[in-house]
Amino acid sequence: MIENFSVDHIDVYINGEKILDNLSFSVQPGEMLGIIGPNGAGKSTLLKVILGVIKPQNGTVEMTHSDTRPIVGYVPQSRAIDEEMPIQTWDFISLGLPHRIRPWLTKKDRILIKETMELTDTSRLAKKSIGKLSGGEKQRVFLAQALVRNPDVLLLDESTANLDPKAQEEITSLVQELCTEQHISTLFISHDIHLVAKYAHRVLYLTRGHYSVGRAQDIIENANMDVLYQPQHVHDALQTSVENRRYGG
Amino acid sequence: MLHYDFMQHAFIAGTIVAIMCGAIGVFVMARGLSFITHSFSHIGFSGASFATYVGWDPLEGLLLFTTVGALAIGRMGVKFFRREASISVMLSVFLGLGILFLSLSTQSGSFTSTILFGSVVGISSRDVWVIVVLTVVLLCLLTLGYKMLKFDSFDPVGAEAAGLPIRFISVAFLLLLSIGVAEAVQIVGALLVFALMTIPASTARHITQSVFKMIVVSAVLAVLGIWVGLTLSYMTNAPVSFYITAFEALCYFLALGWSSLKAKFQPIGT
Ligand SMILES: Nc1ncnc2c1ncn2[C@@H]1O[C@H](COP(=O)(O)OP(=O)(O)O)[C@@H](O)[C@H]1O
Ligand SMILES: [Mg+2]
């Protein structure tokens, strides 16, 4: 479990262009933070900064764990999988295990893989080649690969885009369950304002040069969402978010 | 035939090189490096020619040129060299260089054909030792790097996301590959290393779905190819590389046929 997870006053420039401007927020253990905002706002960039792939020019990302180094699970926005090269689903998931040098799997590894596959409902895909799975099945497998390392922090970059509404709900509610049970702090980017309102404990609304963070209800009510979404959707999402205020404020 | 020293040497060196080529080949295919492998063997050809020109052992020239080539390619990025144009430029330049060195040196034409098409008779017991030691080191490194290499080859985005040192993995693999190519050139020749590195792995891909089994199948097919090639070549005097490529190609088409048959007769819904 993560003790302290905060992003403090970070500035990020890419090719001289300011992408993130003095951004600060913190995330509680087991909290699900939804991230919304237009294309190009810097949402993916933010996750990469947290991951350590992009170094911010100013500011810091603080992530401290009670005893070890915090483990981060990350599902990137896009993935190039060669459909011709077969790698079986269980093997693909096993790649996410944290060991790097040992070429074989221990019994403990195998149990972990099996449990993760049951959790993400991918057991029946175990022997299938990853290239042959449907979009939704792949998303579950990607999630499983990120989860198999028992992360303290989970970063999901539009992981449920391209899925049918039912699958979106299933995966997101599964993630929420895991977060709460295993105290995983989760950041998930989504364009689905409904999903965010329903499952995120708090919301970060990010645009170029501005951001606001708070309860889903407040963000959706106060930020100028009509730029992004139809007024009716905003209204519906507001209704949903009222029931979900665990980490409010 | 095995009571001849040279045949023993050919069998030992050939088998070991085949295991290595088969194993590395799976990652060559997964990383889309088949034509870079082909370029390495051409770089190796000019290295070997250079070695004879300055009076070194051919393997030394081969190793020098291919490893420097690997570092250069790694430095500039594999993406650049995957482009068709870059590959054709590289192939021609190094083939040309090789021809230049050969014409400058006093070696006979038989050396040229050995390096281009491979040879089974010229392998000394010292060569065998060098090949064995190099291959064992190579396979150990491959075993240690297996997990990371597999991750980066089959799921590059995921590997980067998981924080693996992908740049290092890429360069390290190119280096291993370049050493492997240098070794194999001596047995099957510069023009056909490519065949031994890519065909068995492609065949394996149609036979099995698991990465580890693919490596095993690929290595076995490569070894069988060498054995069949050496035996038939001994009996008929035709070049060993011809039999090796013919055997590997036959296996490939059989596997292709088998996998499409299997797909056809698979009951719907499974
Ligand atoms: N590697 C990169 N090179 C150049 N520009 C980039 C790179 N990565 C991101 N950007 C730019 O940064 C901005 C934010 O991108 P991104 O974080 O992917 O946005 P979002 O995920 O919110 O849609 C975009 O304008 C994009 O063009
Ligand atoms: Mg993005």
TrEMBL record, chain A:
GO MF annotations, alphabetized: ATP binding; ATP hydrolysis activity
Pfam families from the UniProt entry: ABC_tran
CDD domains for the chain: ABC_Metallic_Cations
Domain ABC transporter: 5-232
Gene3D superfamilies cross-referenced by the UniProt entry: P-loop containing nucleotide triphosphate hydrolases
Keywords assigned: ATP-binding, Nucleotide-binding, Transport
Top-rank taxon, per record: Bacteria
Cross-referenced PANTHER family: METAL TRANSPORT SYSTEM ATP-BINDING PROTEIN TM_0124-RELATED
Name of the protein in its database record: ABC transporter ATP-binding protein
Source species: Pullulanibacillus pueri
Native organism taxonomy: Bacteria, Bacillati, Bacillota, Bacilli, Bacillales
TrEMBL record, chain B:
Membrane-related topology note: Multi-pass membrane protein
SUPFAM superfamilies linked to this entry: ABC transporter involved in vitamin B12 uptake, BtuC
Keywords from the UniProt entry: Membrane, Transmembrane, Transmembrane helix, Transport
Alphabetical list of Pfam families matching this protein: ABC-3
This protein's GO CC annotations: ATP-binding cassette (ABC) transporter complex
One GO term (biological process): response to zinc ion
InterPro entries: ABC_BtuC-like (IPR037294), ABC_TroCD (IPR001626)
Location of this chain's protein in the cell: Cell membrane; Membrane
Bilayer-crossing regions: 6-28, 85-108, 128-149, 211-234, 240-261
Record bears the keyword RNA-binding: no
UniProt entry tagged with the keyword Protease: no
Family: Belongs to the ABC-3 integral membrane protein family.
PANTHER family registered for this protein in UniProt: ABC-TRANSPORTER METAL-BINDING PROTEIN (PTHR30477), IRON TRANSPORT SYSTEM MEMBRANE PROTEIN HI_0360-RELATED (PTHR30477:SF13)
Record protein name field: ABC transporter
Organism of provenance: Pullulanibacillus pueri
Lineage: Bacteria, Bacillati, Bacillota, Bacilli, Bacillales
Gene name per UniProt: znuB
